[in-house]
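Protocol step 4 of 5: obtain the predicted structure for the target chain.
Materials: sequence only (see below). No template structures provided, no constraints applied. The aim of this step is simply to have a reference model before the mutagenesis design in step 5. Sequence pasted as it appears in the construct record:
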Amino acid sequence: MFRRVRVPASLAVALVFLVALSAFVARTQAQTPPPAAPSRTLNDRFAAGANSGDKKSPMVVEADRVVYDDKAHTVTAEGDAQIYYQGKVLEADRVTYFRESGRVLAEGAVKLTEPDGGLTHADRMELTGDFKQGFVDTVRADTKEKTHLSATRSEKRDENTTVFEKGTYTACPSCAEHPERPPLWRLRAEKIIHKNAEQMLYYEHAWFELYGVPIAYIPFLSTADPSVTRQSGFLAPRLTYRSTTGFGAGVPYFWAIAPNMDVTLTPMYMTRQGLFGEVEFRHRLENGYYQIMASGIHQRQDEAFASEPWGSGDRTNRGAVESLGAIWLSPMWKFGWDIARVSDKWFLNDYGLPSGNLTGSALSGNFFRETSSTVYLTGQGERGYFDLRGFSFQGMANSDLQPQLAAVWPILDYNKTIDIKPEQTLGIGGQLEIDGNLTSSSAGLASYQQIGAVTLDRQYGLYNVCRNPVTGKPDYNQGSCLMNGIGGDYTTATLQLSWQRKLIDPIGDVWTPFVFARANGNFLNYKTTGEAIYFGTDNGIAVTDIIPNAAQGAFLSTNNQFNGYVTPGVGVDWRYPLLAKTAIGNLVIEPIAQVIARPNGQNANTLVNMDAQSLVFDDTNLFEWNKYSGYDRFETGVRANYGAQFTLDMDKNGYASAMFGQSQQLAGINSYATPDMANIGLSSGLDTRASDYISRVSYSPNSNYTLVVKSRFDENTWAMRRLDAAATAHYGPVSFGAQFANYEQQPLIGYVYRREGLQFNTRYDVLEHYYVSGNVNFDLGRHYYNAFLAQPAPVFAVASFVAGVGYADDCTKLTLNYINALSDNYGYPATYTRNQTVLLTLDLRTLGSIKAPFALSPSQIQDGVRYN
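Step 4 output (C-alpha cells):
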C-alpha cells in the first residue's frame, strides 16, 4: 500500500531554483513508496501535484519511487525521475533534497527540456545556501536555435549571471556517427559569461577552432545570446584590398537604439587613402520603414586615380548617400522612394561598394551601370492599379555624359478593368479596359549615335558623336545619324479605351471581338542652343567634335507646339483548340488568327520616340495589338497575325510545347517601316509586308532538364535572323546551364556586326557539403571589332568568368571565388581592361559573416590614364 505525503515547501523552492539555473521552474509533491522499489511496468508510478503557494501552477513528479527519510532529513525521487512544470521537464536518475542544509542535488543523466525545445544536459547539478547560488558539473546546453554550449563546470552567481568554466560554444551539430569528434568550428574560452539581462555572452581568453585545431586567439569577445535576433555590439570585420586604396580593415558596430530602430557604423582604415566611413540608419514604423546609408572619405592620395574624364582626378572629398523607404497609407496605397547620389561616377567602383539601386552586374565590369533614383505613389485595387513616380539617373560608366541623362517626372500609369454584365447591356457583356499614361522628361543635351560604325570623340575616345566618314567633319543628318534622346523637354499623354468579349461557338471555335480607341497628345520643346565640344587630333591635325542641340531640327520638324492623334481600331481573335490523345501523350493543337484594322498614323518627321526603343519581335508579342514596348509609337493600318501553338503532355515522360507564326501588313502604312528619330522598327523583322517567321520550342522530360529555343527566320530565305537558346540540367551532384544568343547585324539602328554570346555555368557537389562552381561568358562577336582593338580578339573571347569552391552546412558557409571580367573603364572599344578579384566569404551562423574582396589587377597612371 502506498501513502501520499506533501513535499515540504523548501524542497519546492529548491526545485524552482534548480530549474531556473537553465530557465526551468518547478514545484512538486511526492509520495513515499514501500522499501522495495516497485517496477513502472506494474502501473504503480507515483504522481502528485503541489503548488508551493501558487495554485495556478500545478506540478507533477513521476519516479520509480520517492523515499522520505526522517533520520537523514532527506526527500529523494529516484529511478528515472521526471518533474513537469509549466511545460518544462526536468529528468534525472536521482533528485535529493537535504532538509537541514537546504541543499538540492540532481544526479545522473540530468536533462532539462524547455517549452521551446531547448535542452540542457549535465552529469550533476547542485544548489546551496539560499538557493540563489548553484553549480553544474559537465553541462551541455542545446537551444531551440540549434546552438550548443558546454563546460566542465558552471556557476550561477545570481539571477542574471552564469559563468561557464572552460566552456565551448558552437552552432554546429555533433557528428551523429562520431559524437566524440569536435564540430567544424567552435569558440573555446577559459570563461564564458552569460548576462541574462543584457542577453549577451562574453568570452575571456578564447580560441577559434576548426575541427578542434586552434587557429586564432581572441583575448576578449562578446556576442549576442543566440535567442536574440538583434543586439548592440561589434559585427564581423570587413577586409579589402585594391592597389589604389591599399589594404583596408574595419569592424562595424551595430547599435540597437530601440526595438524598431538601429544604426550601423563602419569605420575602415585604408593604408593608402586613410579613414573611410560608412553609416546605415534603419527605422521601422507602424505603417512602413525607411533607411539612410552614407559613405565617404577624405582621400590622402588623389593621384592614385586617373584624371577626368577617365577617373576622379584631384577630388579629395568623395562619398555617396542613399535612402529607401515605403509608407503604407492604406491597404491599397503606398508611398515610397529609392534615392542615390554620389560625388562622382567613379566612387562606388573605386571603393568596391555595393548599391541597392545600382544597375549592372559585378561580373560584367561596369557595363551599362547607373544609379536610378525614384519617388512613387502606388495604388492597387482588385482589377486595377495607379502608379505615379519620377526618375533621376546618374551615369556610372565613363562613356556616360550626364547632361544626356534625362530626368523623368512625372510618370503616371493607370489601368482599370471593368466586367460588363450581359443582362444589363442588352447582351453585349465582355470587359472594358481603361489604360492611361502621362510622361514628362527633360535633359540638357541631345544624345546621338552614328549609323553604321560607332564613332567616338577624338579628344577622350568616350562619347558618341556623328561624323562624316570621308571628311571627318560633324554630320548630324537623319540619314547618317540616330537621335536616341532629346535635349529639352518632352511631355506626352496617352489614353486607351478598349472592349473585348470571348465567345465560343457550337463547334468549339473561340472568338474574341474587340474594339478600341487610342488618343495621344504631346508637347515638344527641344533646345536649339547648347552643345558639347571636344578638341582632338587626327593624324596630327587639330579637329573638333561636337554634340549640338541645334541638330535636333533635322530629326523633328516641329517644336514648341502640341501634336496629337486619335487611333480607333477594331479586330477579332480566333482560336480553335484541338485535343488528341496519342500513344505518347495528350496533344493540344491550337491554330490562332487575328486581324486588326486601324487608320494610318503620324507623319514620319514628327515621330518622337523616347520610351519605345526596345522593340524585339518574338513569340511573346506576336498577338499583341501593339508590339512596341512603350506609348510613343503605335501600330497603323490593317495587320493580320497568325500562327499555331502546340503542347504535348507525356505524363511521366515530360512536357513539350511549340509555337510558330507570322505577322502581315494587309493594308495602309506599316508603322514598323516608318523610321522615327532612332529608326526603331527598321530591321525588326516587322518592317516588310510579310514579317519574319518566329518560333519557340521547349522541352522538359522531367524537372531536372529543360530546353527552350526561340528564333526568328527571314520570310524569304529562311536565314536565321535571331536565335536565343537556354538549357539546364541536373544530374546527381552535377548541375549545368547554358545560354546562347545570336543576333544579326542591324546597321540602321547602330549595330554594324552580328552580336553573339555564349554562357556556361555549372556546379559539382564533390562531397556532401563541398562543391566547385564556375561561370564563363564568351563574347563571340568581339572579334568583329579587331580593326579598332589594340589587341585582336579571338572568336571565343572571354568576357568574364568566375571559378569558385565552397563549403555549406547548417552552421557554416565558406566560398572562395576568382572573378575575371572585362571593364569599360577607359572607353570603347580599344581600351577595354580586365578586372580581377578574389572574393572570400565566410558565414558563421549566429556569429556573422566576413567578406574580403582582394583586387588582383594593379592600377597605375600613365599619360593621364589609369591602366589595370
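Step 4 remarks: The CA atoms of residues 143 and 264 lie 28 Å apart. The chain is about 0% helix and 55% strand.
Proceed to step 5.
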